[in-house]
Every structure is written in structure tokens, then in C-alpha cells.
Amino acid sequence: MIERALLPHVLALASRYPVVTLTGPRQSGKTTLTRMAFPNKAYVTLENPAHREFATEDPVGFLGRYPEGAIFDEVQRAPDLPSYLQGLIDDDPTPGRFILTGSQNLALMSSVSQSLAGRTALVELLPLDLAEVRRFPRPAEDIETHVWTGGYPRIHDRHLPADEWLADYVRTYVERDVRQILQVGDLLLFQTFLRLCAGRTGQLLNLSSLAGDSGISSPTARSWLSVLEASYIAFRLPQLHANLNKRLVKSPKLYFYDSGLASNLLGLERPDQLVTHPLRGALFETWVIAEILKQHKHRGRRPHLYTYQERGRLEIDLVIDHAGELTLVEIKSSKTPSSRVFSTLNQFAARLAASDSSTWRAGRRIVVYGGDETQERRQGTLLSWRDLDQIDGKASGSA
């Protein structure tokens, strides 16, 4: 397994905090990362029924076995454990003593935030970003394969067929874990909802429409979507409220953390099917947005990412807020973008500059596209997908 980009940040946090809590989706590499970062620390997975029963029924005795600390994997399986850790940490706040991991953000964060506030650093590990994928032998050379395969580490580490592995992932983790939390009895209904969410990736979220098409109520759709977000399956990208127009759309856009998972849920069996697929643009946009999100989180940065859309008028795919300076990003899956590709970004920048009420200023203007050549143009940067790890003006391996 390769060294993850997040590793230096995790080690830095462990040098300052007595507890480091690492969250992220199932199979994103949390166990591998923590064991690589802390090879001499005891490792205990609470997926093991015996360990889980011990930690749940006798937490004091369980923790007494690890006076020097330990890695507790999938700690949400024993939700009361952080409460008992609090006293141990207060008595001995040695940095890096305990490392906690979990894949159900709601359950884990509720437990940790109540018991370990001020005692733990929180950090997220998502599937592989582009720079990490390239550390494996023989990475893909075409964008369709990157989008279709996604970034779950086991696929790349073991050269597994992505369609088979992702289908098993949906059955083994997504359907099992999420249905367990939601107590959903009708599997077919949930499967329909999940696939309809994949079909709406890269689109404005309309919960009423999603609920109606899924055959469930709007409150149920809202609840199910919240758990998909907490399980790191999907996320909402909020609108930037720039006060430039009263016709501003308020609905967020829906995205999947992993474009490969979305592709699999949509029934794509081969990468080349993406070339003519009606959702090619939406899946490419999903890959780009998720990639930028991962680049930030894997380097310990807190991303401030937005979209911007007015009814029937202006639309910016992605706005990155750097302390008031906005990087404007348009996303085009085409390999040969038109000559007017920067027009929307320039229009938004001009209106932002003319606004008396805006606290933001336009910075870089970038068009990410499906072609192979990056070009610096007078109006902005035409950025190849191949160079997406340099969207901040530097290689993403830099801090």
C-alpha cells in the first residue's frame, strides 16, 4: 500500500493532541493509514464481536489492557467508550496516546463531541485522490477509466475489477450499514433511492422530486440522504450567497464522494461507456469536485467550496473561497472546449467587482476540461484533468 497524503498531518496532530479521531467511508484506508503511522501501537478492531462485547460490557476493564494507548478501529461500534476515555486522558494527556477511527460520522461525532471535546483532533480520510492513485504501478492514462474506477484503495492496490468490487461494496457496506442505521425494511425501495441519487449527481437537489420518484415521503428522503452524507457516500455543495441577484437559486447540488461508486450504481459496466453516456458531464463534474475536496482534506485544510446559480441566468460550477478571494471554476468534460469557455467566469467576476455589497473579490479563473493540455490564456487557466492536482497553483503534494 502507498503512503497516503494525510499521513504527515495525522502525525503532526498526534504530536499535539492526546487523541486523534479519523473518520471516512468504509474501505477508504483508515486502518492501513493508522497502522502505518503508529506501527508500535496496539491495534484493536471493534468489528470483532469479542472485542466489541468486552468494550461495551466492561469498558473500564477493556481500557485497562491498554495503559500506553491503542488504535481503536470502528469505535462507533462501542459508542460509550469515548466517555470512559475522557478520564484516562485527563489523568494522562500524553500526545498521541489513543487513535480512534470510525466510518459512521453521525454516531461517532455525537459520541466524541460530547466526551472528548478539546481533547481530540478530528480528521477525515476520503478515497484516493489523483496524486495518490498515480503512486500505484500502471495508473490509468484516460479520464474515462479514472472516473469509472474511482478511488477506493483496494481496487488499485490489488488490481481488482472495479465493477465487481464496487458492486460488492454496495451490497456489503452501503446497503448493510445504511439500512441498519435507518432500520429500512424494504431493500428494493432503498436500492431505488440510492440509484436515483446517483442519477442526480452533479445536479441541483430537489428533495420533493427525489422522494416522489423513489416512492417515499419527503421527510423520509431527507432522513435517508442525511445518513448517506454521514456515511460518506454523498454530500451537498451549498450555494454561494453573493447578493448579486435576487434570483439566486438556494438549493445545493448533490455529489457523490466517489465517481466510481456513482458510475456503478448507474449500471456502467466499462469505462468506454462514459464516452457517449448522457451523464458523462455530470460524472466528470462529480470526479472533479470530489477530487478538489479530497485534495483539501488530505492535506489538513478546511475547504470552503460552493456553487453559484441564478434562475435562468448565470451558473458557476465551483467557487473556492480563499479568505475572501474566490477561485472561479468551470467544469467541461469535452476534450476540445469552445473559445467562449471563460465567458461565464468573466461575467461573474465583473459583476462581483461592480457590487457594493459583496465582501468577496474574484481571483483565478479556471476551466477544468477533459483534454490533455493545460494552457495559460489571457482570460484564465485552461486546466487539463491530468493537472488537477495543481489547481491551487502548486502540486497537491505540497502543504
Question: Can you describe this structure?
Answer:
There is one protein chain. The chain has 399 residues and is of the alpha/beta class. It has helices at residues 7-14, 30-37, 49-57, 59-64, 81-91, 105-115, 130-133, 143-149, 153-157, 162-182, 187-199, 207-214, 218-230, 259-265, 280-297, 343-354; strands at residues 19-23, 42-45, 70-73, 98-102, 120-124, 203-204, 234-237, 253-256, 305-309, 315-322, 325-332, 361-369, 375-376, 381-384. Helix 5 packs parallel to helix 6, helix 11 (187-199) crosses helix 12 (207-214) and helix 12 packs across helix 13 (218-230). The radius of gyration is 22 Å and the shape is globular.
**Helical residue percent band:** 40-55%
Largest sheet: 6 strands, mixed
Low-confidence stretches: 394-399
Taken as a percent bin, the fraction of beta residues is: 15-25%
- Strand order across the biggest sheet? 9-10-11-12-14-13
- Assign an overall shape: globular
Number of helices: 16
- Total domains, how many? 2
**Radius of gyration computed on alpha carbons:** 22 Å
Structural class: alpha/beta
Q: H/E series, N to C? A: HEHEHHEHEHEHHHHHEHHEEHHEEEHEEE
Give the overall pLDDT as a whole number.
Answer: 91
End-to-end Cα distance, whole Å, is 22 Å
How many β-strand runs?
Answer: 14
